[in-house]
């Protein structure tokens, strides 16, 4: 089946009902392998497909979806979308985008080697992840959720303004939880790797990384409550980026739900902070030629040396803004979801210092390796308080492991208090893909033991 | 869905290479959701998700394949993929006769969603928006949503299990933002359950909105939360999210059987105060975690997790129960036919205790009252947890004196449970908005009475 032709066919059938229409088709193959002590504990494989139909009439929008591509089901889906559009309220800015030329650069998001990878190789890779974790140190007592994921498929988008495009994509990823234990303590850490090219995928490194972190955290303890410098690992720094990407969405700004509303053109961060969103980053996990409503993706400089330049836009927010254009950031979690504004490859631009130098610059402070509950960070208020694990920094060197503490500082202050940016940009597959180097932030409130408890 | 003869042929295709159990799961999910933002009904979405999967067990190992094409031929093909690892084709088991399971749990709703027009449902969202904006000119953003979902499931296995369930969920939620000068605060509320339009007989989603607005307004003038260790009193109802996160996840059997949970091997041991009893109950009528049968065809139960402080039982699915050579507790759940089941909580709560809730607050000299809570997270292996207080109050000399914002609570689940020294008489379940993520999403309920923890780390900025 040619999915682009199918999408175009759905559009032309919908248009007969006097609406503007868009069809989004996502078809893929997924495999997941889970091993435990070398045995394949769970194996899941299947193909899946989905169609989402969006219609607009007089600024009223309706959306319906199905996983059944039969003529009758498609008719029913179109009908449902048209009916729902009648219920919706009109909004003059609610239109579908017109075609724009899509640059033909090689984005490196499809690797036939992933498609051709036989199941036994996937099982073998999952086993390598586990083995690397268990062999790292005798204190690694078990692994959990040791998983290899692979996906490939096609996305097609067509609309009645003339947009018609499709692309293939592939993905391979793995993760594992390692648990370490000694006579006094136990600790758990997570390792992962992912990407769109098989050749770059390193299963052994996943296991080692999880094991190293788990062993390192044994004997962790809280530190006294105090204000101090915090050095974030790239993984931990994504806690800042996730909320920042939502606050930088034009929808949040237009609807007064962003702590950065009204701040375009102003200094909002330290001058060493530059924040980018690049949907065309070669090989990036959130890279694609066009977004989920068919608009070409782009590289956007959101914060440039501390100054807020622009917001992330989709077609609706750009139309509503009047002077902006879409930055190609319309995204869908699946065919069942209407496009919504989301970051793509969203990251802090790396600096010059090696991570050891960033840590070395801190006399007393906390190195944060991992964080929890980042979804609680509030992009409306800027309130930021999460739990952290890592190491105490003593005279520029990591000393004892630290756990059960919180780190808190409003994002407004946190961005201004960035004092060092490392050169080790690393991406994490969250909300698209968030990337950061090691960064240092001063004046962070660390919640831990009270003075009396010492 | 499909005739039983077809199901038997699919199950036998699953058994063909010597598997010891084959299972078929079929699902039909229909949903409608409406979003009102800035006073406009902006998003209206409707859809249908239909599919099925075949799971095949070889000892403790399981393989799964699924399809969104619900024909006998497609399911037999899936069964072949799932069975592929088997090597013992000469010794294939025969499928037992399928016997339709009975459950005392009633999941029938009284009034189906179709009895109210989409326009009327949108009208309720408009009322929610109106009352919120009327609350104060400082309210700068209101977003309201309605979702209805009907999920029908059919489970069969080669031991003769045949279970059907029909679950309908209705949910309203609202998000509010308030602004004063350069300070912005937000708040949310939600209400719902496993219920049809009879929901409106005794509940009104419009009524929750002024309170949500008041929280956002209150937080505009709230001072930053303190940081450090102090006594914490946690509200009843949704406050049960603490037990869900900090302890419940550590009692799910998948982490237990691996030895990866802080509660492994502790059945029969004292894990909390004498006056603490906690349940996971998948049979409570109308709750989000309620099922006639779980997603593996096992009847749901009221499982005593902790009785008078003693750990009694974990929560089991079929995979972990087979591994341990015992019965499932009816906690095998899956997000959809695209997912393999795992042990999950249903409706989990701490039962009423001996203390007067007012006396609990009155007992604290200086501490924090967590009146409204957001979400939380736990690291199951060690039991370290964190969760967010969306409306907190300082307690000074037994009285709530000042609202505080930006508070987070961190601790270790098993340790916190042991520390609890007061449990109120005011047990209640949450208003019906709980969604739990453990790699897969599942609707859950939580609950508890007012609870006091004498020493907990609060992560504020002061």
Query: What is the strand content of chain A?
Result: 35-45%
End-to-end Cα distance of chain A, whole Å, is: 69 Å
Class per helix and strand makeup of chain B: alpha+beta
User: What is the terminal separation of chain B in angstroms?
Assistant: 60 Å
**Helix coverage percent of residues of chain A?**
10-25%
Q: How many β-strands of chain B, per DSSP? A: 25
Strand segment count of chain A: 20
Gyration radius of chain B, in Å: 24 Å
Apparent shape of chain A? globular
Assembly classification: heterodimer
The number of helical runs of chain A is 10
β-strand percent of chain B reads: 35-45%
- What number is the mean pLDDT of chain A? 95
Mean pLDDT across all amino acids of chain B: 95
Strand order of the largest sheet of chain A: 3-2-1-4-5-6
**Integer count of domains of chain A:** 2
- Can you summarize the main beta sheet of chain A? 6 strands, antiparallel
Shape of chain B: globular
The main β sheet of chain B shows up as:
7 strands, mixed
Weakly predicted, low-confidence segments of chain B: none
- Give me the secondary-structure category of chain A: alpha+beta
């Amino acid at each position: 089946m040619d999915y682009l032709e199918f999408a175009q066919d759905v559009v032309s059938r919908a248009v007969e009902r006097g609406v503007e229409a868009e069809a989004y088709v996502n078809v893929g193959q997924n495999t997941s392998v889970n091993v435990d002590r070398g045995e394949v504990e769970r194996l899941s494989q299947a193909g899946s497909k989905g169609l989402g139909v969006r219609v607009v009439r007089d600024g009223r929008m309706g959306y319906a979806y199905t996983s059944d591509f039969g003529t009758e089901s498609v008719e029913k889906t179109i009908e449902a979308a048209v009916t729902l559009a009648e219920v919706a309220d009109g909004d003059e800015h609610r239109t579908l985008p017109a075609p724009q030329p899509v640059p033909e650069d090689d984005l490196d998001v499809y690797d036939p080697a992933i498609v051709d990878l036989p199941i036994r190789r996937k099982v073998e890779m999952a086993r390598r992840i586990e083995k690397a974790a268990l062999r790292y140190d005798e204190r690694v007592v078990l692994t959990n959720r040791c998983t290899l994921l692979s996906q490939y498929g096609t996305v097609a988008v067509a609309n009645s303004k003339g947009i018609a495009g499709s692309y293939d994509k592939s993905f391979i990823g793995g993760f594992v939880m390692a648990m370490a234990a000694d006579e006094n303590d136990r600790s758990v850490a997570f390792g992962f790797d992912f990407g769109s090219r098989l050749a770059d995928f390193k299963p052994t490194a996943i296991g080692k990384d999880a094991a190293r972190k788990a062993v390192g955290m044994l004997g962790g303890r809280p530190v006294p409550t105090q204000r101090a410098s915090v050095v974030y690992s790239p993984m931990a720094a994504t806690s800042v980026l996730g909320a920042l990407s939502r606050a930088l969405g034009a929808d949040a700004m237009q609807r007064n739900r962003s702590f950065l509303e009204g701040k375009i053109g102003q200094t909002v961060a330290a001058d060493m902070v530059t924040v980018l969103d690049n949907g065309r980053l070669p090989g990036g996990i959130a890279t694609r030629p066009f977004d989920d409503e068919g608009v070409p993706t782009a590289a956007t400089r959101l914060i440039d040396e501390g100054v807020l330049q622009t917001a992330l836009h989709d077609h609706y927010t750009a139309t509503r803004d009047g002077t902006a254009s879409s930055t190609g950031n319309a995204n869908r979690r699946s065919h069942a979801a209407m496009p919504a504004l989301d970051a793509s490859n969203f990251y802090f631009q790396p600096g010059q210092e090696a991570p050891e130098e960033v840590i070395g610059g801190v006399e007393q402070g906390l190195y944060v390796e991992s964080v929890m509950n980042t979804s609680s960070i509030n992009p409306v208020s800027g309130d930021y308080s999460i739990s952290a694990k890592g190491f105490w920094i003593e005279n520029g060197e990591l000393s004892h492991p630290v756990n059960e503490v919180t780190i808190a500082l409003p994002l407004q202050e946190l961005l201004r208090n960035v004092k060092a940016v490392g050169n080790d940009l690393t991406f994490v597959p969250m909300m698209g893909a968030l990337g950061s180097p090691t960064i240092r932030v001063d004046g962070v409130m660390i919640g831990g033991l009270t003075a009396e408890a010492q | 869905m499909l005739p039983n003869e077809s199901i038997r042929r699919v199950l036998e295709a699953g058994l063909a290479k010597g598997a010891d159990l084959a299972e078929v799961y079929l699902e039909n999910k229909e949903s409608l959701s409406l979003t009102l933002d800035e006073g406009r009904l902006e998003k209206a979405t409707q859809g249908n998700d239909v599919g099925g999967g075949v799971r095949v067990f070889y000892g403790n190992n399981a393989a799964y394949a699924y399809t969104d094409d619900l024909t006998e031929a497609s399911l037999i093909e899936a069964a072949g993929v799932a069975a592929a690892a088997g090597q013992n084709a000469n010794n294939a088991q025969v499928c037992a006769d399928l016997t339709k399971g009975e459950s005392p749990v009633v999941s029938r709703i009284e009034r189906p969603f179709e009895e109210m027009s989409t326009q009327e449902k949108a009208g309720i969202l408009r009322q929610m928006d109106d009352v919120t904006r009327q609350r104060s000119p400082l309210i700068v953003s209101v977003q309201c949503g309605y979702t209805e979902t009907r999920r029908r499931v059919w489970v069969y296995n080669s031991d003769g299990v045949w279970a059907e369930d029909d679950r309908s969920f209705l949910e309203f939620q609202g998000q509010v933002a308030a602004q004063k000068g350069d300070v912005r605060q937000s708040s949310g509320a939600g209400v719902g359950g496993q219920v049809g339009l009879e929901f409106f007989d005794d509940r009104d989603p419009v009524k929750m909105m002024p309170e949500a607005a008041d929280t956002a307004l209150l937080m505009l003038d709230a001072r930053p939360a303190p940081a450090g260790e102090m006594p914490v009193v946690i509200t009843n109802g949704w406050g049960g999210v603490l037990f869900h996160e900090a302890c419940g996840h550590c009692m799910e059997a998948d982490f237990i059987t691996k030895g990866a949970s802080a509660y492994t091997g502790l059945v029969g041991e004292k894990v909390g105060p004498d006056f603490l009893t906690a349940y996971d109950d998948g049979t409570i009528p109308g709750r989000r975690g309620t099922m006639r049968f779980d997603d593996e065809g096992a009847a749901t139960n009221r499982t005593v997790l902790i009785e008078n402080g003693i750990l009694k039982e974990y929560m089991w699915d079929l995979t972990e129960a087979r591994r341990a050579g015992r019965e499932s507790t009816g906690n095998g759940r899956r997000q959809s036919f695209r997912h393999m089941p795992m042990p999950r909580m249903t409706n989990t709560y701490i039962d009423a205790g001996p203390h007067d809730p007012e006396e609990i607050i009155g007992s604290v000299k200086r501490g924090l009252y967590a009146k409204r809570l957001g979400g939380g997270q736990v690291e199951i292996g060690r039991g370290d947890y964190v969760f967010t207080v969306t409306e907190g109050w300082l307690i000074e000399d037994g009285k709530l004196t000042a609202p505080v914002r930006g508070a987070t609570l961190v601790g270790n689940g098993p340790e916190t449970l042991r520390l609890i020294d007061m449990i109120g008489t005011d047990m209640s379940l949450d208003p019906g908005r709980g969604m739990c993520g453990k790699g897969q999403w599942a609707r859950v309920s939580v609950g508890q009475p007012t609870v006091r923890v004498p020493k907990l780390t609060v992560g504020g900025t002061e």
